[in-house]
Amino acid sequence: MTTADSLKSLADMKIEESGTIVEIHGGEGVSTRLAAIGVIPGKKIMKTSSFSVRGPVTIKIDRAQLALGYGMADKIMVRTDGSAP
Amino acid sequence: MKILLMGNPNVGKSVLFSRLTGVHAISSNYPGTTVDFTRGFLRVHGRKAEIIDVPGSYTLDPSSEAEKVAAEMLGTGDVIINVVNATSLERNLYLTLQLLERDIPMVIALNMWDDTRHRGIEIDLNRLEEILGVPVVPTAAIAGQGIRELVDALPRARRVGHPARTRDERWVRVGQIIDQVQQISHKHHRWFERLEDASVKPLSGFFIAVAVLSLSFLIIRYLGESIIRYGMDPLFQGLWLPLLDRLSAFFGGAGIFHDILIGKKIDGSIDFVQSFGLLSSGLYVPFAMVLPYIISFYFVLGLLEDTGYLPRLAVLMDTAMHKLGLHGFAIIPTLLGLGCNVPAILATRILESRRERFIAATLVAIAIPCASLQAMIIGLVGGKGWGYLAIVYGTLFLSWVLLGIILNSFMKGLSPELLIEIPPYRLPPWNLLLQKLLIRVWGFLLEAVPIVLGAVLVVNLLYMTNIFTFIADFVAPVVTGVLGLPREAITALVIGFLRKDVAMGMLALLNLSGKELVVGSVVLAMSFPCVATFVVLLRELGVRDLVKSTAIMLFSAIAVGGILNGVLSQIGVK
Fold first, then answer.
1. Model pLDDT for residues B63-122, shown as the tens digit of each residue
2. DSSP secondary structure code for residue B265 in this structure
3. Judging by DSSP bridges, how do beta strands A76-80 and A7-9 pair with one another?
4. Does residue B267 sit at the A interface (CB-CB below 8 Å)?
5. What does the DSSP assignment read for B219-235?
6. pLDDT at B25
7. Is B115 in CB contact (< 8 Å) with chain A?
8. What average pLDDT score do residues B289-318 get?
9. Which one of A36, A49, A68 has the shortest CB-CB distance to B417?
10. Three-state SS across B479-508?
11. Alpha-carbon distance A23 to nearest alpha carbon in chain B (angstroms)
């Protein structure tokens, strides 16, 4: 039911697109910081905005809104809802 | 008994602290307002207990200086009040579970309880209490509800001593708990939420930011000017001046005591700016020139803080701030610096790396003029024409940007990335806003007025004794040659170490041209920070980085002042 192309980084997601976090790339440092604020695999998220030139990304998660840098958004892999059957 | 108030950032710990103790701690609607602990006392069943407002933290594994303070405080407490945001339970319980693993009695304050209903959130309190094994008390700190119940629950605080879990195990457990205690019914978007979204989107966000900042500036200016025009000036001219005139006549219009208390008469009469006596300029400068802008600035800053706009500004500024080696959140300490550099440098604790803190603190100390200095610059340079004022602000802004770019490219390491929670917009709680304004204004009066008076006294004594000629001879070539300022300006620049506003007042005595006044104010703003800023820099950066930071300051002040002097002379600005 899932294909490789439904898996993308948060940075590559479109605005208003939503999905489930599958994994977080990068070292322990990044995943620890993200986990502390509640960004962990298994959580549903929706991208609410992004800024050009590798600018920050904002998301909704558990009814809260977070802003994170592009580098972090690039490491968060999300299975998007749109392409699931 | 020592009670610790602990919880995630921006869940209302400081408001709860104020409610519990009657000591007003500064609170705002953004994560990281409290970077140091505040101490207070309350009575629990007739016994006095100490309570500490601990900086907010998502986890006990710290990633910033403020979080480190929280983790270190934990070992010193007898009881923890874990403040939890009821509207965001699934994000707050992680820290709760981590705290329950420690062997310290705990009570949970389920704060913002009054917000849950209209957000469609239902929480089964009894079930939550049963699962966690500690008392859970619903509170609404801003409205003052549930405070007594919370105090009554303190003796029932229990230590649970859960077995230590790993990070992933804790999150799994949070999920299980949420499934059992929380139900959410979907609610329609409020117009507030549309505005929330619009202010963090590139285009709409930009226009909102321009509107908010312009409006803030206008309010600060008109409110400040109005307080001067309709409050302070009539007071000083109508009531105080006649009294001083009589005192002056009593002294016979001259003499040492006359000059120290009242100052030199200008064209036969007392001038509140130029006479420079303790009772004339010594009172007029802090009360009639600076205080009005302190009030108007902190009123507007309080509005921005309490509505929840600032974290959104941080998101918008993020890309630009990365060029200066900072991320967007550094805009908050920077804005605080426009009021006073001391809390601004403390607020850099919300930044993650030492490198970032050094850059942010150095930039604030050099290029961000505090409200006291700005009030004097606006009053004195503005008097020469708005163009001159624009040159001062333009130069400082440009220096902030350039210096940031230079520091970023020369210092080793990368700047960490932005990661913040954006709080919902909230109508400012007016009573809290007013209290915060009072704390800040009172703080200014308490700290500034004695130093202003001291500085004015020192200036008078120096003029009488000529001690300064020695220092003046030493630095004269730089000041006259490079900066194009008269020799007498040296005294003012040195007094700047005590108070920048007094120093600016001294520049006004020298009958400087517009150009000289512009160069003088820029150098004064950039060079040495005032003594209070200096002390806090030492505490936050340590000796070595303070020396580095100071060297950068002196160098950039002379370089920028010299260039400005050269450029303005070239294009014929007088």
1. 788 788 888 888 889 999 999 999 999 999 999 999 999 989 999 999 999 999 888 899
2. -
3. antiparallel
4. no
5. HHHHHHHHIIIIIIHHI
6. 83
7. no
8. 95
9. A68
10. HHHHCCCCCCHHHHHHHCCCCHHHHHHHHH
11. 13
Calculate the CA dihedral of residues B547, B553, B554, B560 and round it to 10 degrees: 160
Mean pLDDT, rounded, for B471-500: 86
The CA distance from B318 to B312, in Å, is 10
Residue B343 gets the label, from left (phi > 0), alpha (psi -120 to 50) or beta, of alpha
Query: Does residue B169 sit at the A interface (CB-CB below 8 Å)?
Result: no
Which DSSP category does B162 fall into? P
Cα dihedral B492/B381/B313/B219 (nearest 10): 120
Inter-chain residue contact A64 with B88, CB threshold 8 Å: yes
Average pLDDT (A76-81) is: 94
Three-state SS for B25? Answer: coil
User: pLDDT tens digits, residue range B12-51?
Assistant: 999 999 999 988 888 888 888 888 888 899 988 888 999 9
Distance between CA atoms of B382 and B387, rounded to whole angstroms? 8
Taking the C-alpha atoms of residue B433 and residue B228, their distance in angstroms, rounded to an integer, is 22
For the cut 60, the answer to whether the pLDDT of residue B495 exceeds it is yes
- Tokens 């592009």 belong to A70
Locate B203 and state its tokens.
């285009």
CA–CA gap between residue B574 and residue B558 (Å, rounded)? 20
Chain B nearest-CA residue for A58: B200
Cβ count within 10 A of residue B414: 12
- Give the bridge partners for B298, in sequence order: none
Of the candidates B85, B91, B55, the residue with the CA atom closest to the CA atom of residue B72: B55
pTM (2 d.p.):
0.92
Q: What are phi and psi of B60, to 5 degrees?
A: -90, 0
Calpha distance B330→B356 (Å, rounded): 9
ipTM (interface pTM): 0.92
DSSP 8-class letter at B188 = P
Q: What distance in Å separates the CA atoms of residue B568 and residue B522, rounded to the nearest whole number? A: 13
pLDDT in tens, B350-362: 898 899 999 999 9
Length of chain A: 85
Task: Report residue B154 as tokens.
Answer: 């303190």
DSSP state of B123: E
DSSP string for B418-471: PEEEEPPP----HHHHHHHHHHHHHHHHHHHHHHHHHHHHHHHHHHHH-THHHH
- Which two tokens mark B45? 């069943």
